[in-house]
Amino acid sequence: MSKEYDVAIIGAGTAGLTAQEEVVKHTDNYVLIDDGPLGTTCARVGCMPSKALIAVADDFHKCSSFDEYGIDGAKGLIPDHQRIMARIRSMRDEFSGGVIHEMSGFMDKVIRKRAEFLDPNTLDLGDETIRAKSIIIATGSKPFIPDSWLPFKEFIIDTDQFFELETLPKTMAVFGLGAVGIELGQALHRLGVRVTVISRRKTAGGLTDPKLAEYAFDHFSKEMHIELGTAQILGKTPTGLEVGCGSKRWSVDRVLIATGRRPGLQDLNLKNLKVDLDAKGMPVFNPETLQVGDLPVFLAGDVNGLKPVLHEAADDGTIAGYNACAGTMARFKKRIPLQITFSSPDIAIAGLSHKALTEKGIDYVVGEASWEELGRARMMLGKAAGRARIYAEPQKGRLLGAELMAPAGEHMAHLLALAMGANLTIKEILGMPFYHPVPEEALLDAFLQIATQITDPVSMPILQRIKGKPHG
Questions:
Q1: Per the confidence metrics, is the pTM higher than 0.70?
Q2: Chain-centre distance of CA 312, in angstroms?
Q3: Segment holding 420, helix H or strand E
Q4: pLDDT (tens digit, 9 = 90+) per residue, 298-352?
Q5: Is the CB of residue 300 less than 8 Å from the CB of residue 313?
Q6: What are the counts of helices (DSSP H) followed by strands (DSSP E) for the chain?
Q7: What is the dihedral of CA 395, 215, 47, 36, to 10 degrees?
């Protein structure tokens, strides 16, 4: 006889754990199913260990400019790749261990088995079946390696395997210049690995604005070897692989696949849901309620392919957890979109991207910022680069979105997202302080450009005159 639950959650990553937090508010009769390593993708193989590597690489990279600072002896510094990777794994274990510790209060609800659908309410766990009134799929995403490259798998590293490396190879090809490709590729290059990056498009870190994408591609191409075209694995060498792009060929020790991750749906036997699946095996679902068709099944987090970032996965978990228990489907206002790539300079998109604005046919005006001549950026050796394009509606200049590549861009992206969330007009933004000298100062130029283009004029100076007689 099958065990009966109110809710079954498949996957104990960020979305699954956040769904659990919401479900437990409504019922104690639930189960959390996961047969893989615990600790979330972010803590184990994603955001956290990658930022630990980037921090080491950026600090070491500074020594290349020490002569200009007036500091001698930096050329004798040598990175110990084995110790670096050991430290990162230690930090990784601490991060993921913290997540597992937080699960200790409900480990009696966790089943360490693989789940497959028998029907929309029934799961096969191998040696038992369970039934649930609602089921949340939160199985995250997995790296993808094309079938034609599988014969070379012993020399291929995906993003789930990278931080298990005992040391770093002397040469590496990085396939892809998205967020992971530029982050890890630049970090490896700065730590002395001879890196060749191959990108199919002339962009970096997910930028969609053509002007900014080309600027970023050209900037990073000056620091490390980047080729534009389709990556190929041509065969094995005595120590690794021969890779190619167009007519060019290189021998490398390892290949890092950074061409993206795919929703982890392959092993769930979704055909038993009796719903239409697209070419990638994704069931049709409502992006607002996360419900699959009219079934009591929900897709939360990276597995739905909408916005594969941690805070979005957490929000999805809350939405799916609520709707799995509520009986009637509810929609929730989503946060302002925000994605950050921790390259140097940072790359970020806040609000609507250029691509989204174009596809939606939304009218906008643009303000541009540059950090190339900004005094504070020039003081920070190696940081005097970067541009931003900020999009605003043409009436009052409320911000719609922004794409940027900038020093301290992670902080400016948050400021821009906060301004969008507060629905500030350009006049209200210009009424805020802009300190000197800080990297954020460059944004003022973009805001002033927007102010000259909108139909609702902004009078200068922007300072508000206080009515009444002066005090004192």
A1: yes
A2: 10
A3: helix 409-421
A4: 999 999 999 989 999 999 999 999 999 998 899 999 899 999 999 999 999 999 9
A5: yes
A6: 13, 22
A7: 100
